[in-house]
Amino acid sequence: MQPGAPWGIRSKTRSANQDCLEGTAVIRVFLSYASEDRARVEILYQNLLAAGFQPWMDTHDLMPGEVWSDAIQRGVQSADCFLACLSPRSIVKDGVLGNEIRTALGQWERKGRGSKYRLIPVRLELVQIPQNLALLQWFDLFRDEQWTELAKVIRQVCEPKPAPPAKWLRVVELSSLVAALALGIWWYTSPSKSMRWPSGPVRLGVTVWKLREATAADKPGAKILVQPHANQSAPLEFIPERADLAKPFVIGDRVRATFESAQEGYLYVIDQERRTGGALGHPKLIFPTMRIRGGHNEVHSGQLVETPPQEEEDPYWEFKKGETGYAGELLTVIFSRQPIPELGAAKEARYVDENWFHARLKEWTLPLGRTEAGSKGTATAAEVAAGKNGARILTADDPRPETTFSGTPKRGAPLVASFALNVS
Prior knowledge:
alpha+beta
């Protein structure tokens, strides 16, 4: 089958959301911070990314072999908005953070103070604003949930203001408003308030990757870097290879998974241990968690979601010998048109109420179509980049997911698909 054949996860026709995510209609935000505040700023990065911004953060955007000072200067100069993240730790430093702020101030002066370029001091904690930023109004981000207000501020000051409508348009707008109000009344009095998906089947793509150690012959962009453990002197490099789910894994195999959909919605992944004879363990929610994308689980067409994330110390699951009778894992993927409150993100993976889970499976499960790509080989650089931070959008020219589930859920219900990772 040629790339772009109508299996439906991706399209050559780009949506406005895809353009936004890839930078053609996006606000570019540079994040400047002290290394001690990396964890806080990482949450802000993931929140901005999920909201459709294009944030720049050194841990995500500095590529191997780049001259870091040149890359940072390009990042500052190409940004629409510069956020200087301030804390008691950052204001005593002058090095990299000070250079970034001076570059941003120079950019602000060159573009003119009336331009759309914005330099915003963001206080992560109660701290005195440095003298060189004292002329600027700051924003207090003392709690992570305040990022939504910060996002509104960035959009307000960076997005171009539309021209006032012509007088003849106002009549059209008034009639449109009346129609919208009527539609709203229908929406809130209809049986379901869930987001409407396009008619036809919902499609969900899944690829399970088996990791092997990289060799000199492997392309650099397709490698996943694993940070060294206490007994290692250097990072390890792994290459993801597409796994055939019809073949069992063995103890010691390292695997990871990526997910994508043709529709916009909310993704949930639940894991259960499989035992010989068919018994299943307690259901555990492994996505979303606050450790992955800051807890955001909204998915857009062509956007890849991976678990475990590449940023983890161990970005894979490893099958280990446990109790007698261990037979692998069962992954249940739930793709919903609206958030599911019972499956909200916690800091770490967490167990789900078993009675609630089984009741929902009984209510939501329906026969699904399942198509296997039958592809072999390693991940492409595009797939690795798309999985790393979600900013790279996959198109019909990229390899398709290994397994595609499709079905038409009941009204208001999500799509539910399960697949096993068998261990021999």
